[in-house]
Design brief:
Layout lengths: L3 E6 L3 H11 L6 E7 L3 H10 L5 E2 L2 H5 L6 E4 L5 H11 L3 E4 L7 H12 L6 E3 L7 H11 L6 E8 L6 H4 L21 H11 L4 E8 L8 E9 L5 E7 L7 E7 L2 E6 L3 E7 L3 H7 L2 H8 L8 E7 L6 H16 L10 H17 L3 E2 L4 H17 L5
Helix pairs in contact: 4-5, 5-12, 6-8, 8-12
């Protein structure tokens, strides 16, 4: 096999983008094996754009056709685990979209089944893990360059969505159709990066607003306090109603600080001595001399890096890496099993707000699913008209 034949399940915006990347030659080790969509209109789209590619309206038929070596699941979130399992059962490699699922119980089933098929490639579309900026941030943290983390703050409110976005279809921004709002749709990449870089919190306490500024059932405003269990804390803020949104990620360590602005620029400040050593050895007079107009280069060095980002480059990097793992065993940048961590964090944020108290991670899966089902039933009784 020289190229992986990818089956694209769902020819919507994302599936269409992946098909375009492959057709344009942006994924050298991959070709389109088949396309599947249960919307009859998409058959005409596929026939027009990809006339030589087999089209299926049932993904099981595609999996059993012999036309594909792997699939990507560009479908509603609830279906990712189910489709991933069906692919792996048939010895088809699986690249699931983010999030890996809506709740950890279903994602765990996917992970456990994937573990029984170690010869197959199981990945997730965490394209931000290929972003050189975040790879640099992780490298600095992992190397201990800013010491032990004391605090994390991420405000990511650059997801502005008008009401018309939510009115596009009946399933969008519903508990039954999508399983949540900004936490499961817009912010999964940040939830993944947060735990990938800084570790998984031990506890969360959240203030979440549902239908706060939009006529929807799910969350459009989130403020969460993170407790890492070792004294370190964090805050995660996101929403979909800030027209002038902010994307700023700060990580404070005992030996320095990292600040990421707009996912484009990173400022790394490295203390010459740890904060504790400075506190223990510096008199107030000496501190005042330095911090009130003195030369701060005596205290820390500063490195500023800026990164260019071409749209689609990070997605194609994941696709190339996934195919390389299939073809020659190149290590995965985003193993599918990692997908459960971001889902676990989103579940904990939801559950904390539903129960009105701090919750520990991992949350009780049955308690979460029970509360989610309550939301779905409530939504059915009082549906929001779109």
């Amino acid at each position: 096999m020289k190229k992986v034949r990818l089956g694209i399940i769902g020819l919507g915006a994302q599936g269409g983008a992946y098909a375009g990347f492959i057709t344009d030659g942006r994924v050298e080790n991959m070709e389109i094996g088949a396309i599947c969509d249960n919307d009859p209109a998409k058959k005409d789209v596929a026939k027009d754009k990809y006339p030589d590619v087999p089209f299926y309206d049932n993904y099981i038929d595609m999996l059993e056709s012999g036309d594909v070596d792997a699939v990507v699941t560009c479908v509603p979130h609830y279906l990712h685990p189910e489709m991933g399992i069906h692919a792996l059962k048939r010895d088809i490699h699986a690249l699931v979209e983010k999030p890996a699922g809506v709740y950890t119980k279903q994602v765990k089933e996917l992970n456990e089944f994937a573990a029984t098929k170690p010869e197959l490639t199981f990945g997730i579309m965490f394209n931000q893990r290929t972003n050189e900026l975040y790879q640099k941030v992780k490298e600095v943290i992992d190397n201990g360059e800013i010491g032990d983390i004391r605090r994390t703050n991420w405000i990511i409110t650059s997801w502005w969505r008008p009401q018309g976005y939510y009115d596009q279809s009946a399933w969008r921004a519903t508990w039954e159709g999508e399983g949540g709002g900004v936490l499961v749709n817009q912010a999964p990449h940040q939830l993944d990066l947060l735990q990938w870089i800084c570790g998984i919190p031990k506890k969360v306490y959240s203030n979440v607003k549902y239908g706060y500024q939009r006529d929807i059932a799910v969350e459009d405003e989130v403020t969460t306090l993170l407790d890492y269990g070792n004294g370190a804390t964090g805050v995660f803020i996101t929403c979909t109603h800030d027209v002038m949104g902010t994307d700023r990620f700060e990580i404070l360590g005992d030996k320095g600080k990292i600040v990421v602005d707009d996912s484009k620029k990173v400022t790394i400040k490295r203390l010459h001595k740890s904060e504790k050593e400075m506190s223990d050895t510096m008199s107030w007079a000496d501190a005042a001399k330095v911090f009130m107009g003195g030369d701060l280069s005596e205290v820390y060095s500063e490195e500023v890096l800026e990164f260019e980002s071409v749209w689609g480059a990070q997605h194609t990097a994941v696709m190339e890496n996934f195919a390389a793992n299939v073809l020659d065993g190149t290590p995965l940048l985003a193993p599918g099993s990692d997908g459960i961590n971001g889902v676990a964090l989103a579940n904990a944020i939801h559950l904390s707000s539903w129960l009105g108290k701090e919750v520990e991670l991992p949350v009780d899966e049955d308690v979460y699913l029970n509360e989610l089902n309550k939301k779905i039933e409530e939504e059915k009784r009082q549906p929001i008209q779109k």
